[in-house]
Write a structure and sequence with these properties.
Blueprint lengths: L3 E7 L4 E7 L5 E7 L9 H11 L1 H18 L7 E8 L1 H8 L4 H4 L3 H7 L9 E4 H4 L8 E4 L9 H10 L8 E5 L5 E5 L5 E5 L21 E8 L2 E7 L5 E7 L6 E3 L7 E2 L1 H14 L2 E2 L2 E2 L6 E2 L5 E2 L1 H24 L9 E5 H6 L2 H7 L8 E4 L3 H10 L5 H11 L10 H15 L7 H7 L13 E4 L14 E3 L4 E5 L8 H5 L5 E6 L2 E7 L10 H5 L11 E2 L2
Helix pairs in contact: 1-2, 7-12, 8-11, 9-14
Organism: Methanomethylophilus alvi (strain Mx1201)
Protein name: 4Fe-4S ferredoxin-type domain-containing protein
GO molecular function, one term: oxidoreductase activity
């Protein structure tokens, strides 16, 4: 009898899962979501939603999404033996439906006042049926341990899957995503971890035409003669030639083999790199007639996109430099950079280095796929020992740099913000470092090698094409005092909101995966009667 394992990666920007035949080790199905089912585009939004609308509501959204994903795999779920899960600490806590207030509020005094007892996050084996996962009564769900609130199981995966933890040479490994978990392996046994709140731009979100890495996404852009050639992901998540266009006007110069529907964070990075290199972009301005950079199929880069992506890149470079400073090292001391996650794999590594996404001074760039789902796969296949994971998590707790309280990080990020958001030229960077009595950045090396150890961030997609799934459900509540003007509907930038009349009552109906969450709330501000409050909305039955 065939038995299956399911690997589930719960990312801040979306969920990815694969079904594996446990006898053969073959991947039999892959499914991903377009977005995260909980409103918002970053961890803070998700936590705020959970605190205001109820942790049980957030958990229902996550579990409901997982159930829909699993059902779309097309396997007999009753034959699932094991579900391996990986993700950051916030996402894993919401998935388990355990306390999150200790993650949201800093300081022991505050937690004591609230009566919050932080739960243990040292790994768990749970029954799928007890968690609300449907159709798999005999399956166990395996949750790996976390290190700290900003360093979760996905960071452990990043270190173990890449194999860098025991490196005798200094190197820096980064999981390029919304949280940008990173670790500096000093080469003397020390590992210093950190997490930069890069934001959703690295996952293609908060970008006007942005999307997760999925079929139809522009993943790279290259200068080709008088035009820019787009690279587009196909149904198997493989790079294909897209159109070559005039970036100033969007006019197609040469037709490609793949049509584009949006752009990933990596595509945005490539567009920024080329734009800055050619002088079309002087952050945050775009020097075209309409202030937009034009790509394939009417997909444009706006100054807002430059701003969002720039802040993300700036947070990462400030994080790299902070870890180096913490270790008594600086640029040039670390020659090897490991790049994991979808963005780390699909981005052009040389462009990433040139724009600040890789530790300055690195000369050997090694690109991995999605280490989080690879860890989930190994767990699902019974190839990971939980005790070993717990032991490694304890080791990582020893040296962690909290960027939120680091004066060095604050100083470095202020320089990055000036570069990306106030038009300060990069040539002034070292002058600003002098102000904070920090060493200068080393000159970039002319000889850089790139190793790409995976073609896709999801294994075996050539054997089973990726199913892209709408992840959201609807949140609804009765809006008392609503005059049905629908100004809120018109104001929503993501078209996530609708107002529905039932008799003499008016109901707000929100698509959870499209809602921008706490960072937006434009609909609430547009309400002339101030009666729209999204926190009151509950999962539609």
């Amino acid at each position: 009898m065939t038995e299956y394992g399911i690997a589930l990666d719960i990312g801040t920007s979306g969920l990815r899962c694969q079904a594996i035949d446990l006898e053969t080790g073959e991947t039999v199905a892959t499914a991903i979501t377009q977005r995260h089912p909980i409103p918002g585009m970053n961890v803070i939004d998700h936590v705020n939603f959970a605190l205001k609308s109820g942790e049980d509501v957030a958990n229902k959204l996550l579990i409901g999404c997982a159930n829909q994903l699993f059902a779309s795999l097309g396997i007999d779920l009753s034959k699932v033996k094991r579900v391996g899960v990986c993700g950051n600490t916030f996402q894993m806590s919401l998935f388990q439906n355990i306390e999150i207030r200790d993650l949201a509020y800093a300081g022991e005094n505050m937690l004591r006042e609230l009566g919050v007892v932080p739960p243990k996050r040292d790994g768990a084996i749970l029954k799928a049926s007890d968690m609300g996962l449907l159709g798999m009564p005999d399956a166990e769900v395996i949750i790996p341990p976390a290190v700290r609130h900003e360093i979760g199981a996905d960071a452990i995966a990043m270190l173990l899957i890449t194999g860098v933890a025991d490196s005798k040479e200094p190197c820096l490994v980064v999981d390029y995503g919304t949280n940008a978990e990173m670790a500096l392996i000093c080469g003397d046994g020390r590992i210093i971890t950190g997490s930069a709140a890069a934001g959703p731009a690295m996952e293609g979100q908060e970008i006007e035409r942005g999307m997760l890495a999925a079929p139809g996404a522009i993943s790279d852009v290259d200068i080709d003669g008088d035009g820019w050639k787009c690279t587009v992901l196909d149904q198997s998540m493989i790079d294909r030639d897209g159109d070559t266009v005039d970036p100033m006007t969007g006019r197609s110069l040469k037709k490609g083999e793949a049509e584009a529907i949006g752009i990933t964070g990596t595509g945005t990075v490539a567009a920024l790199y080329n734009g800055i290199k050619t002088g079309i972009i002087v952050p945050p301005k775009i020097n075209t007639e309409d202030g937009k950079l034009h790509l394939q199929n009417g997909i444009d880069i706006t100054s807002h996109d430059v701003d969002e992506a720039g802040k993300a890149i700036g947070a990462m470079r400030a994080g790299f430099l902070t870890l180096l400073h913490e270790a008594g090292m600086w640029t040039g001391d670390v020659k090897i950079a490991y790049m994991s996650g979808a963005s780390g794999l699909y981005v052009d590594a040389i462009k990433a280095l040139g724009i600040g996404m890789v530790v300055p001074g690195a000369t050997r760039l090694i690109q991995f796929g999605n280490t989080s789902i690879e860890m989930a796969r190994r767990i699902a296949m019974g190839k990971v020992n939980m005790d070993d994971l717990k032991s490694f998590a304890q080791k990582l707790k020893a040296e962690h740099c909290m960027f939120a309280t680091s004066e060095t990080f604050k100083q470095l990020y202020s320089i990055e913000y000036a570069v990306w958001c106030t038009s300060m030229p990069m040539s002034m960077y070292n002058e600003m470092l002098d102000v904070y009595q920090l060493p200068h950045l080393s000159e970039p090396s002319e000889e850089v090698t790139v190793e790409r150890r995976s073609m896709t961030d999801l294994p075996d997609t050539d054997k089973c094409p990726v199913k892209v799934f709408e992840s959201g459900t609807y949140l609804t509540y009765e809006v008392e005092g609503c005059i049905f003007c629908k100004k809120c509907v018109k104001e929503c930038p993501e078209k996530a909101l609708d107002m529905v009349k039932k008799g003499d009552k008016v109901y707000c109906r929100v698509s959870s995966d499209r809602c921008g969450g706490t960072a937006c709330r434009r609909c609430e501000r547009a309400c002339p009667k101030n009666v729209l409050h999204l926190d009151l909305a509950k999962v539609e039955q």
